Amino acid sequence: MTGRNPQDRKRLSYLKDRRNGYGENDKSSRRNIRRNKRAVHSANRRREHLVLTALTGVRDGTGADAVEEGLFAKRPKSWRKAPDEPLAEALIRGFERRVRTGIEDGTTAERRIHHIRRRLARPTAD
User: Domain map of the chain by residue range?
Assistant: First the structure.
């Protein structure tokens, strides 16, 4: 059985575990991501609907050109979630914030940051 030692597991945790770096509660992100996607799609559908309803009743050939121009003249709205950051980056940023706000002295934070970076530099035994 080839298992990983605790040091390798910790290193992989620092690299692969993710934290929400956007600044909001990670539980609310579950709801807000769906809400933001829904709002963008709704706005795009509404814009398309307005362009198409303006054409209702028009029978000449210029209407198709107007619809095509109206639909493709403006790029549809889009929204993408900002990716979560690795655990190591989140911890380092937290230690730096503690020093900036005066919660912790610089030497302790530097020692902790050095410890995290030293663990990341070690190669795995795969």
Answer: 26-81, 85-126
